[in-house]
Structures are given as C-alpha cells and as structure tokens.
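Before a colleague's protein record goes any further, I have to sign it off. What it holds is a sequence and that sequence's fold in token form. Would you go through it and say whether the fold makes sense for this chain? The record follows directly below this note.
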Amino acid sequence: MPRYVDGFVLPVPKKNRAAYLKMARLGRKIWLEHGALDYHECIADDVKPGKLTSFPQSVKLKKGEEVWFSWAVFKSRRHRDQVMKKVMTDPRMLAYEGKKMPFDGKRMFWGGFKCVVSA
C-alpha cells in the first residue's frame, strides 16, 4: 500500500529539550487522533557537519543546539492534507500561536514525500 510521509528537521537548544519534548508528545497525540498512521520525533545521535551539506548545516546549527528529525506517515497526500487541516485547527495546536516556541522556526524545514520503496 503506498504511503505518504511528512518530514521535519529543526534545531532545538539543548536547554529547551524538555519543553520541546512536551510539545512533541502533544503533537504525536494530536496527529494520531486526527488520523496519521504513525508519528516519530528523533534527536540527532550521529550527524556531523559535512564538506558541502549535512543536517547541522541545513538548520545552521549553533553551539548549544541539537538537530531533531521528525516524521508522520499517512495513507496518501490527500489523507495527509485532510489530517493536517484538522491538526492545524485543533485548539491544542492553536494554543501555541503567538507563544515563544522552544526552537527557531525560521531554521526549520519540512516537506511531503511519496514512498516509492518500503518494507
């Protein structure tokens, strides 16, 4: 069965790890409640700066920060769009609007991907 994945990469200050984890756990709950098939939040363990590009370089990682990689799985892009509409209007997500986030959203990047090989 084809799947669709949204991936996110962002820098989180180490001092904000607990706040980000709290947000990530709520995010997982919200995404799954609204229909995502799976949801993951991962902290970098083996990522080094490269000569041309890398995860740290992609988010302009600063001293005292760590890279996080997250992804959610959906049935299709259409399914993702339906879930995201619900997620983005969920009052628990809207509660974060205008509040200081535990990461620099300007250095976060994301995208949707069609799965073409999977096990």
